[in-house]
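Notes to self after the Tuesday call (sharing in case useful).
The group wants a holo model before anyone commits to mutagenesis around the pocket. I volunteered. Ligand is NAP. Logging inputs and output together so the record is complete.
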Amino acid sequence: MILVTGATGTTGSALVRDLLDRGLEVAAMTRDPARVPDRPGLTATTVVVPADAMYLLPPAARTPLDHEENLLRAAKAAGIPRVVRLSAIGTPDEDHDLPPGHLGAWHFRGERTLRRSGLEWTVLRPTTFATNSLAWAPDIRAGRPIVNPFGDGKQGVIDPADIAAVAAEVLTGDGHHELIYTLTGPELISVPEQLAVLAEILGRPLEVVDREPAPELFPSEIAEAATAGARLVRAGGNAVVTPDVEKLTSRRPAMFRAWAERAWPAVIDGA
Ligand SMILES: NC(=O)c1ccc[n+]([C@@H]2O[C@H](COP(=O)([O-])OP(=O)(O)OC[C@H]3O[C@@H](n4cnc5c(N)ncnc54)[C@H](OP(=O)(O)O)[C@@H]3O)[C@@H](O)[C@H]2O)c1
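Result:
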């Protein structure tokens, strides 16, 4: 049995599908069990249940640290020996001087809590998800230009299904204790380049407007961290591609185009 927290979310839902496809039993943790599909081998839970391993998803809304501390305490009490935590690229390994509101500082505190938990641990640090582009859907549907605070900064944009595939390997295989993997797609691609790919797939011109990063361009709960992140990307500071996905899954991670060809037509057709 594998316990997946954040099971209704971007990586958690892909991970649940991946584990079930491998014939494993999965407990999907959520605050709303009605959101968990009815599938053989899958049970919904609102609390930590005994399992062989737990996928620990810190929600993007940046829950207080005690959210993770409570989950780890409950995991220990339930006899779960192994935890795989989703983190983010650029999280420092050691003590650092990042401001407290920085995404890396927040993930650092969560990683440190896990490292000190006494449980077997592995950390996954993915780069920007391909699914972030779905936030452009309302503007694309309405024919409005896409506001781009990331300039021409390139990133190794990753398909969340590849993060899930790595998580499934690490949750179920051995030899990953005390290891940190940095996960990216196979190519560096900027926002204007992603939009050029989408324009081809959707068969319509897409206009992009460049803007200096500013908090009002992002959802309020992540505004500070996202503004700092956009400045970094704009300056070329997240132009990173790693071999970790292929090493761990023996398959090449998806290009942005391959992910978009699967995901985007339904987004626009379903409008
Ligand atoms: N997006 C990126 O490009 C990116 C890149 C690197 C790292 N990350 C990291 O990925 C993580 C998740 O990001 P995401 O946007 O993809 O989130 P997500 O996995 O789509 O959603 C978070 C999940 O957590 C649960 N959740 C939300 N708020 C909660 C709360 N207050 N208490 C308990 N559960 C809660 C929700 O489950 P229920 O509603 O079912 O309870 C939801 O399924 C973040 O830590 C982020 O830093 C993201």
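Two things stood out.
The longest helix spans residues 256-269.
The chain has nine helices and nine strands.
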